[in-house]
């Protein structure tokens, strides 16, 4: 337990973290990677370059300081991060390293304002918070390994089939290379894929949602090719997966992880799935589950046009006559043929007015997945329609961001 004096000191730093948090975490990662370059094998370099990882850590540190007197308030966020840590292979031995360079970054950025008293309080607080993460992650590691079909670390899977889902997305059907049956997963969960790409100095680990039916013999992941532009380069891993990973190749996978799932908490209320672009991948798995359970569900998906619209036929087969599933599509840039064939329900971006027309009138449970900007727009639209925060569940591809 933290001493009252320590809690008071940490609380006093909240306004400082609100202003300097991202500067501190940016300097932290510079120090960390300079002194421990081996940790570059665990991080998404694109998220680092775009500042998403630094912002996410700054938000996490701020939240920890704000709720330091009642850490149970951040336990949901801890569990969400812990799922990602377990799938990446983060170890307990790495936490002291992180603590060392986080304190150094605080001192460097804040200068004389970071007194010995403040640094001592943060060292004590970090130790408590790290112990929480280590404890939660230890339980997750044990559960992942001891479940039927589970395993430790990364296990070789063979690509038994690959299939184009759109002009930019390819699905990979995966089965354990040793012929065993892999662990079951909950609809909405993901796996980490560990790759050694020719010409790249570090290994790359990416987390991909499991897009197949939860009761399938193997796994399916669906990877959208990330084409760059003036502001960012092409996605190294997504392009490698789409262009170079062929049938017969082996990929290293972690056991399934993640808490973006439909569970008993959803009760018997209708379910609404809202996705944009590649955010459709966990939704397809959820749709298979909901269809089998004969649950009332509404699926709303936004994409550019029919060329980028993945899983059209698969979802249509689930939403056929007699099903309790309804599907609606928004195309931001439809072709003339899309208009002629009436392949979509709304032209342009999804807005609150249209959402009101298609979502259930009664209370429902909402699941959102897509880009940060899409999630912010959908979250705010649902809030404006009176949907309670507790009814909205969000999955970020990459570091979490603020939705407010």
TrEMBL record:
<dbReference type="Pfam" id="PF00042">
    <property type="entry name" value="Globin"/>
</dbReference>
<keyword id="KW-0520">NAD</keyword>
<keyword id="KW-0349">Heme</keyword>
<feature type="binding site">
    <location>
        <position position="190"/>
    </location>
    <ligand>
        <name>FAD</name>
    </ligand>
</feature>
<dbReference type="InterPro" id="IPR000971">
    <property type="entry name" value="Globin"/>
</dbReference>
<feature type="domain" description="FAD-binding FR-type">
    <location>
        <begin position="152"/>
        <end position="263"/>
    </location>
</feature>
<dbReference type="GO" id="GO:0020037">
    <property type="term" value="F:heme binding"/>
</dbReference>
<dbReference type="Pfam" id="PF00175">
    <property type="entry name" value="NAD_binding_1"/>
</dbReference>
<dbReference type="InterPro" id="IPR023950">
    <property type="entry name" value="Hmp"/>
</dbReference>
<feature type="domain" description="Globin">
    <location>
        <begin position="1"/>
        <end position="138"/>
    </location>
</feature>
<dbReference type="GO" id="GO:0005344">
    <property type="term" value="F:oxygen carrier activity"/>
</dbReference>
<dbReference type="GO" id="GO:0046872">
    <property type="term" value="F:metal ion binding"/>
</dbReference>
<keyword id="KW-0560">Oxidoreductase</keyword>
<feature type="binding site" description="proximal binding residue">
    <location>
        <position position="85"/>
    </location>
    <ligand>
        <name>heme b</name>
    </ligand>
</feature>
<keyword id="KW-0223">Dioxygenase</keyword>
<feature type="binding site">
    <location>
        <begin position="206"/>
        <end position="209"/>
    </location>
    <ligand>
        <name>FAD</name>
    </ligand>
</feature>
<keyword id="KW-0479">Metal-binding</keyword>
<keyword id="KW-0561">Oxygen transport</keyword>
<protein>
    <recommendedName>
        <fullName>Flavohemoprotein</fullName>
        <ecNumber>1.14.12.17</ecNumber>
    </recommendedName>
</protein>
<dbReference type="GO" id="GO:0008941">
    <property type="term" value="F:nitric oxide dioxygenase NAD(P)H activity"/>
</dbReference>
<feature type="binding site">
    <location>
        <begin position="396"/>
        <end position="399"/>
    </location>
    <ligand>
        <name>FAD</name>
    </ligand>
</feature>
<dbReference type="GO" id="GO:0019825">
    <property type="term" value="F:oxygen binding"/>
</dbReference>
<dbReference type="InterPro" id="IPR001709">
    <property type="entry name" value="Flavoprot_Pyr_Nucl_cyt_Rdtase"/>
</dbReference>
<dbReference type="InterPro" id="IPR008333">
    <property type="entry name" value="Cbr1-like_FAD-bd_dom"/>
</dbReference>
<comment type="similarity">
    <text>Belongs to the globin family. Two-domain flavohemoproteins subfamily.</text>
</comment>
<keyword id="KW-0285">Flavoprotein</keyword>
<dbReference type="InterPro" id="IPR017938">
    <property type="entry name" value="Riboflavin_synthase-like_b-brl"/>
</dbReference>
<dbReference type="InterPro" id="IPR039261">
    <property type="entry name" value="FNR_nucleotide-bd"/>
</dbReference>
<feature type="active site" description="Charge relay system">
    <location>
        <position position="95"/>
    </location>
</feature>
<keyword id="KW-0274">FAD</keyword>
<comment type="function">
    <text>Is involved in NO detoxification in an aerobic process, termed nitric oxide dioxygenase (NOD) reaction that utilizes O(2) and NAD(P)H to convert NO to nitrate, which protects the bacterium from various noxious nitrogen compounds. Therefore, plays a central role in the inducible response to nitrosative stress.</text>
</comment>
<feature type="site" description="Involved in heme-bound ligand stabilization and O-O bond activation">
    <location>
        <position position="29"/>
    </location>
</feature>
<dbReference type="InterPro" id="IPR001433">
    <property type="entry name" value="OxRdtase_FAD/NAD-bd"/>
</dbReference>
<dbReference type="GO" id="GO:0046210">
    <property type="term" value="P:nitric oxide catabolic process"/>
</dbReference>
<comment type="similarity">
    <text>In the C-terminal section; belongs to the flavoprotein pyridine nucleotide cytochrome reductase family.</text>
</comment>
<keyword id="KW-0813">Transport</keyword>
<keyword id="KW-0216">Detoxification</keyword>
<dbReference type="InterPro" id="IPR009050">
    <property type="entry name" value="Globin-like_sf"/>
</dbReference>
<dbReference type="InterPro" id="IPR017927">
    <property type="entry name" value="FAD-bd_FR_type"/>
</dbReference>
<feature type="site" description="Influences the redox potential of the prosthetic heme and FAD groups">
    <location>
        <position position="395"/>
    </location>
</feature>
<feature type="region of interest" description="Reductase">
    <location>
        <begin position="149"/>
        <end position="404"/>
    </location>
</feature>
<dbReference type="InterPro" id="IPR012292">
    <property type="entry name" value="Globin/Proto"/>
</dbReference>
């Amino acid at each position: 337990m933290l001493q009252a004096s320590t809690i008071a000191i940490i609380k006093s730093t909240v306004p400082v973290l609100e202003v300097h948090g991202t500067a501190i975490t940016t300097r932290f990662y510079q120090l960390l990677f300079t002194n421990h370059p081996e940790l570059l094998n665990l991080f998404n370099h694109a998220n680092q370059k775009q500042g998403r990882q630094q912002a996410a850590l700054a938000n996490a540190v701020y939240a920890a300081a704000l709720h330091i007197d009642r850490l149970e308030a951040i336990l949901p966020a801890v569990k969400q991060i812990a799922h990602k840590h377990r799938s990446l292979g983060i170890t307990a031995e790495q936490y002291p390293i992180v603590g060392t360079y986080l304190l150094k970054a605080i001192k460097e950025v804040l200068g004389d304002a970071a007194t010995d008293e403040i640094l001592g309080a943060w060292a004590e607080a970090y130790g408590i918070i790290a112990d929480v993460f280590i404890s939660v992650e230890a339980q997750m590691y044990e559960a992942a390994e001891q479940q039927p079909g589970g395993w430790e670390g990364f296990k070789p899977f063979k690509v038994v089939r690959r299939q184009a889902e759109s002009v930019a997305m390819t699905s990979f059907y995966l089965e354990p290379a040793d012929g065993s049956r892999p662990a079951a997963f909950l609809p909405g969960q993901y796996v980490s894929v560990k790759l050694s790409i020719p010409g790249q100095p570090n290994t790359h680990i990416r987390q991909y949602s499991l897009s197949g039916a939860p009761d399938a013999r193997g796994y399916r992941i669906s990877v959208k090719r990330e084409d760059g532009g003036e502001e960012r380069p092409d996605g190294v891993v997504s392009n490698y997966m789409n262009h170079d990973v062929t049938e017969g190749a082996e990929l290293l996978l972690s056991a399934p992880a993640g808490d973006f799932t439909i569970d008993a908490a959803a009760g018997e209320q209708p379910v609404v799935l809202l996705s944009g672009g590649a955010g459709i991948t966990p939704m397809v798995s959820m749709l298979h589950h909901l269809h089998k359970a004969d649950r009332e569900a509404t699926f709303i998906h936004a994409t550019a046009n029919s060329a980028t619209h993945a899983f059209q036929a698969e979802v249509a087969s689930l939403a056929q006559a007699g099903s309790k599933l309804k599907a609606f599509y928004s195309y931001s840039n439809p072709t003339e043929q899309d208009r002629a064939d009436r392949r979509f329900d709304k032209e342009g971006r999804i807005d609150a007015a249209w959402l009101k027309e298609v979502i259930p009138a009664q209370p429902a449970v909402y699941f959102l997945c897509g880009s940060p900007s899409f999630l912010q727009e959908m979250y705010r639209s649902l809030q404006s329609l009176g949907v309670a925060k507790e009814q909205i569940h969000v999955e970020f591809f990459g570091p979490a961001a603020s939705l407010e």
